[in-house]
Structure formats: C-alpha cells, structure tokens
Amino acid sequence: MARSEDTVRRIFIAVDLDDEVRYGLAAHLSTALPDSLLPGSSPPPVNWHITLRFLGKMDQVAYEVLLSKLDSIELGRRFDLTFSGFGAFPQASKATVLWLGTGGGSDALDDLAGSVEAAVVDAGFMPEERPFHPHLTLSRIRPPQDVSGLIESMATVPLTQAVDHITVFESHLGGGPAVYVPLERFDLG
Ligand code: 3AM
C-alpha cells in the first residue's frame, strides 16, 4: 500500500541480531545469571539490537532523503562482532540502563556508526552530540539501582554476530513493549 505524503515515522538505525545470536544470548543469560533475573524491565529478545543512530520522528520527505543518503554511502566491509561483559548507563552504582558491551569488531562498529552519522548529517539531520557507545540494552531500571555486583559477575558472552547489513527500524511505542519494524536494510561490502 502506498504511504501518504504526510506519514510520520519514528526511526532508528541499528545492527540487528540473527535469531541464533538473539536466542543464544537469551539462553546464555538465563543460565549464567545467579537467579536468572535482570533488574528492571527487560525488552523481549525479539527487540534486541545495537543502535547506531536514533533519529526520532520524521516525515516522508525526510525519510526518503535519509534512505537515498544511506544508499549512496560506503558502509565498509562486513565484520564479526563479539560480545563482552555487562555495563551500565550512567554508572554501575546508579544504573538506569544495563547493557551488554561489544568486544572484537568494536572498532569496525565505530567506523560503521561514523559512516551512518555522515549520511544522517548529509540528509539534513542535526549531528549527534553524544559519543557513540556501542551497547545492547538488556534492561531499563527505574528507580536506578546499584548493579556493580552483577556487572562483575558477567564475563564474555560466547557468541558472534556477523555484521553484513544495517537496518532502518520504525519504532512503535504504546502500552507494553515497543514494536520495532524493520523497514529497509543496507548491505556492507
Ligand atoms: O539501543 P537502545 O535500547 O539503547 O533507547 C532507545 C533505543 O536505544 C533509543 O533508540 C533505541 C530504539 O528505540 N532512543 C529512544 N528515544 C531516544 C531519544 N530521544 C533514543 N535515543 C536517543 N534519544
């Protein structure tokens, strides 16, 4: 069905996970964690991803410009991404977000985020002011909690994600978990 010109979408660009990695990670966490529970509210595994750039709401024209810029840039060579231990935003002693960090391939991921940022700015969006910090959000915690012990207990996760494309997602918020719909993908070389 054709989209009307006044369609507004809430958009972010991310590295998606293969189901093998997604559910392998979920299984690993449920056996590795002492009580199989993360503090706070955990997004369902189907929603797990590594955000490269959150853009927010945009109209159809801006969306099409964004796609054309993403289509025209060099995203670099595909690479393997491994996962390291847990981390927290803004800090372990008062965490509001518990995340899984990246290990091998983090430099390539940084470069990929830089390429995406260049395309986003070229498409007319304001530059991101915060430095890119690759992470996979595992839990959002309100009120903040001290997760220092949990972070120390979680070692490297034995899974590897082959990063061979990026995905443009539409985010639908409402009651319950957000729904992330993949709209477009752009392949790495
Ligand atoms: O990858 P994570 O889960 O850290 O937190 C939101 C999620 O990131 C983030 O975009 C991803 C998909 O929703 N996000 C949502 N609203 C945001 C905002 N206003 C935002 N990031 C920055 N600014």
**Main sheet?**
4 strands, antiparallel
Q: Which kinds of small molecule does this entry bind, naming each only once?
A: ligand 3AM
Q: What is the third-level CATH name, the topology?
A: Cyclic Phosphodiesterase, Chain: A
Strand content: 35-45%
**CATH level 4 superfamily:** Cyclic phosphodiesterase
Percent in helix:
25-40%
Shape by Cα distribution: globular
CATH class placement? Alpha Beta
Order of helices and strands: EHEHEEHEHEEE
Strand order of the largest sheet: 2-1-7-8
CATH architecture: Alpha-Beta Complex
Average residue pLDDT: 94
Number of strands: 8
Q: What is the number of helical segments per DSSP (H or I, 4+ residues)?
A: 4
Structural class of the secondary structure composition?
Answer: alpha+beta
Beginning-to-end CA distance, first to last residue: 31 Å
Low-confidence stretches: none
Radius of gyration (CA) equals 17 Å
The tally of domains stands at: 1
Q: What attributes characterize this protein structure?
A:
single chain; binds ligand 3AM; 4 helices; Cyclic Phosphodiesterase, Chain: A; 189 residues; alpha+beta
